[in-house]
Amino acid sequence: MCGIVGFAGTEQAAPILLDGLKHLEYRGYDSAGVAVYSPSSGLQVKKAKGRLEVLKGLTDDGRNMEGTIGIGHTRWATHGEPNDVNSHPHLSQDNKIAVVHNGIIENYVEIKEFLLSKGVCFQSETDTEVVAQLLAFYYRQDGDLMMSVYRVLHRIEGAYALGILCADTPCSFIAARKDAPLLLGYGKGCNFIASDVTAIIKHTREVSFMEDGEVALVTSDSITVFDALGRKIDKEHSFVEWDISAAEKGGYAHFMFKEIMEQPDAVRKTVAPRIKEDRIVFDELKLDEAYIRDMKKIFIVACGSSYHVGMVGKYNLERLIRIPVDVMLASEFRYADPLVDEGTLVIVISQSGETLDSMAALRKARDLGARILSIVNVVGSSIARESDHVLYTWAGPEIAVATTKAYSTQLVLLDMLGIWLADICGRISIEEYSSLLEELKRLPEKMEMILKNTEDIQYFASRYFNHDSVFYIGRNLDYALGLESSLKLKEISYVHSEAYASGELKHGTISLIENGTLVIALSTFLPLFDKELSNIIEVKSRGADVIALTTCDMAEELKKTVHNVLCIPRTSLIFQPSLGIIPMQLFAYYVALQRGCDIDKPRNLAKSVTVE
Ligand code: M6R
What we know:
The protein has 19 helices and 27 strands. By secondary structure, the protein is an alpha/beta fold.
């Protein structure tokens, strides 16, 4: 939930750290800080509440901090309110050790009490400060920093990615990881650590991913990695395929808008390499056919928008494969008693591959004997590495907190998986298979058609942006689409909104409809078009203002009842949400724009939720 970057080299460290933090701000943006060391000024720490710009101002973009080695942090507060003191890096009482941390130290109260009893004074309310103070405490006893780091790691419980800089060993810093992402970057005459490759991609594309329990010693010319027992290990290096332009705005006002516009390409990149000679081919999946045919059940677990992909998946996979598909929020699954066993394929969906609840659900499912297949965007992320099988969505880096292109690529990949499984199970006819494949190939071009024509969406956003409550209604796939549409609107525009299965309205919610209530009626699931029309009439007759979404061929029919109609091209039933979501993302975007919201960094949110 926070972002960490570290640099050791020959250039001035602080400007490089601040630039790295700029690319990590999506992970947390309520405060930021850096610690650098120089022989003349010693260990210097600058930190500030607020956006990174505040820290940049304070340090003249890093220029007024000398030194060629340092660590930086951008925070999403968990323990202690966002303020200057609670910001990272945290210093030990003797000002020798600076620590940045992502994660939560669960037993920090007990450690703090222990240290207080030893006369250590604390400055902040954070869990992280105990790491700095405990490390200094052990270091005073051991006189060997690495040994003391291991003692600390054995004592603390919880999740962490740590960067540690000590004034006594100023040519190196130490990194450690458990249940929070951290990667190592190998540059020319310099080396890095980072929570995410976007922070360092400008300097190097050669990285390796730290595993739980590993500790790294980083200098300007080497990175040495040790396992949990302190034994030196060799790390496999990976090469990041995309370049810096993918992680920058490139002339767009917001990352979110850029990422909405990138969807056709992202879907193309996800789909095209997996279609060979008119067959879906998952070279990367080593699932044997006998297992697939014996599979009794599929369980999808995920959070937020990824969960909404799972909701679409439930309808589509059951329709295609004809076996039960359950979908559960990962945060519920991990504490429930789910019916999962060896015959269950558990699909974990996650853009970041680091969401803590999804990770915990994965581990629970694995312990129950299930096979784990994950659909993940970030290569080398924890969820990808812990899964039996991985399908990557090739969406490229997604920076805006509100997901768009990752959602779209997850959706299409899950649909492809459904078709592939249905084919192996012999549950799909040759004709249906071919027609779905044809439509799949045409999806990017149909997405482009929607993106070229956004005037109506902008118009409706400008007309309705000041409504303070919006209802999304729909049936079947449109209900699942409504869940995601509603989340998009509320997370970036702060407009209260709810998504309801249209048939549920009269079981309570319709009492909220009054004159002028905005209802967005999703009517793209054509087998239930008439049913949805009845629901539209119900809410209209109670005074609702309705915007309806349907396919272009049904627009005229709908206009007989509804004045405000948006339309999307027709595609196969199962892919219709992939098109339907685009106007809904744009509607949320334009509403948030009209309301003057901070679209890429909505309040209280962060991109990657690595805490519970
Ligand atoms: O990285 P993940 O896909 O696991 O993230 C799950 C949710 O946190 C994420 O989808 C969140 O709901 C987004 N802000 C939605 O736009």
